[in-house]
Amino acid sequence: FIVNHKNWSDPGVLKSIFPNLHFVAKAEIGKQSDFKYLSYFTNKILNVFDLILYDRGSKKNGNNVRQLIKKELDKGNSVVVFAEGSAYPFGGVKDFYPGSFELAFENNYIIQPITIKYMTDITYGEVKKESKVHNFNILKNIFKSQKNKKNDVHVTIHKDLVPSEFEDPIHLKKYTKYVIEKELINRTLD
Questions:
Q1: % of the chain with per-residue pLDDT over 70
Q2: What distance in Å separates the CA atoms of residue 117 and residue 68, rounded to the nearest whole number?
Q3: How far apart are CA 130 and CA 23, in angstroms?
Q4: Nearest residue to 71 via CA among 94, 52, 56
Q5: C-alpha–C-alpha distance, residues 34 and 148, integer Å
Q6: pLDDT tens digits for 144-161?
Q7: 3-class secondary-structure state, position 114
Q8: How far is CA 123 from CA 8, 10, 140, 153, in A?
Q9: Distance between CA 82 and CA 180 in Å, rounded?
Q10: 3 beta partners
Q11: 117 phi, psi to nearest 5 deg
Q12: C-beta separation of 12 from 146 below 8 A
């Protein structure tokens, strides 16, 4: 599954729909400053998500992660990749990292694009000038989410993409991003 990333709760949303997913996540996820006081609980929670951890910038680790993804896919398991590499609360879909598309193209692994759209302001991620404290502080985000009477999350599962039907991994990557972003832009408040 290739999914856009808007909030720390994206994995939980997906896990509630597809309980047996594995997730690729940056290795520093449990070390982020918002998590350090909750490390015991964080580690327990993270273990539930069958994580394949990735050290950013490490080519050796990147190859290992590809092999771990391949192993899970060859066993018939599904793996979620947030191809943007991080959560971005504002703007459209950021550029995707190419590794998962190269792996899919080389092995003709089917890609299932998924768009996640939060209809309330509970997004979380990078700090921008328009950020409110709950957009970049995980505890404040949790409290804000709990205060809302309703947190609508729209999940759109798109048509499967068969890599052999594309010219190359770049074409596959660009088209996947287009499908996800088009739904994110077209989705409006009900």
A1: 83
A2: 29
A3: 30
A4: 52
A5: 21
A6: 777 877 778 889 999 999
A7: strand
A8: 8, 10, 11, 11
A9: 12
A10: 114
A11: -135, 125
A12: no
- CA 189 to CA 183: how far, in whole Å? 13
Instruction: Give the pLDDT confidence of 76-105 residue by residue, as tens digits.
Output: 999 999 999 887 777 788 899 999 999 999
What is the rounded average pLDDT of the residues 164-176? 98
- The single residue listed with the structure tokens 């290795």 is 27
Give the span between the Cα atoms of 64 and 56, in whole angstroms.
12
Cβ-contact 66, 39 below 8 angstroms: no
Angle at CA 180, nearest 5°, toward 178 and 184? 110
Q: Are 10 and 155 in contact (CB under 8 A)?
A: no
88 close to 125: Cβ distance less than 8 angstroms: yes
Can you give the length of the chain in residues?
A: 190
Top mean-pLDDT range of 16-30, 48-62, 122-136, 159-173: 159-173
Place of tokens 């951890």: 53
Closest-CA residue to 153 (of 190, 180, 113, 126): 190
129's tokens: 């000038």
